[in-house]
Helix-turn-helix protein (Mesonia algae), 188 residues
Amino acid sequence: MNSLATKLKEARKSKGLTQEELAEQSQVNLRTIQRIENSESEPREKTLSLICNTLQIDLEQLLSVENSEKKKNIGPKIAQVFFLLALNLVLIGIVGYLTFDSTANTNSLFGGVLISFLLPFFIVSYTKEMSAVERLLKFGLGYVGYFLLVLTNHGFSTGFKTGLFPCLLLSLTLLYFGSVLLRRKVIA
């Protein structure tokens, strides 16, 4: 639950009001009050103003506290960006090492294909709640960058002959469509 929702819910309870009473007194729809308190939606400024007037809360103070708490949460987001960047580098490093190396043999290429299937499938299985586009942006951007880098420096034919491009395409496809594969039920 976000801090705005928590503060509004606490203020409502401290006034001894039910959600229905707050909705009636503030002239805000009951379902809107429920969504705000359950952090399902952010209230519009007019709605928030009506609720704050009813609960006798200073709207400006409430918003300034909310904004300062949002600024405090930037550290974990920066850490997440660095983690995703490192993860993308590791993923492309593994696939690139197994396929793009000029001395890669058949076993190495097979390992590259296997890794290109298993790693994205593992990622998809742990990020089921994520949309396909979000997953592709978070975990597949490194593959796209690597594809472009190899394409500009070595050409398409080299990337395709070494097996790198098919492996990257397999990984990107699984990252995007992997949740569809997980939803399929085996009929016995």
About this structure: The chain is about 80% helix and 0% strand. The longest helix spans residues 74-99. Residues 74-183 form one domain.
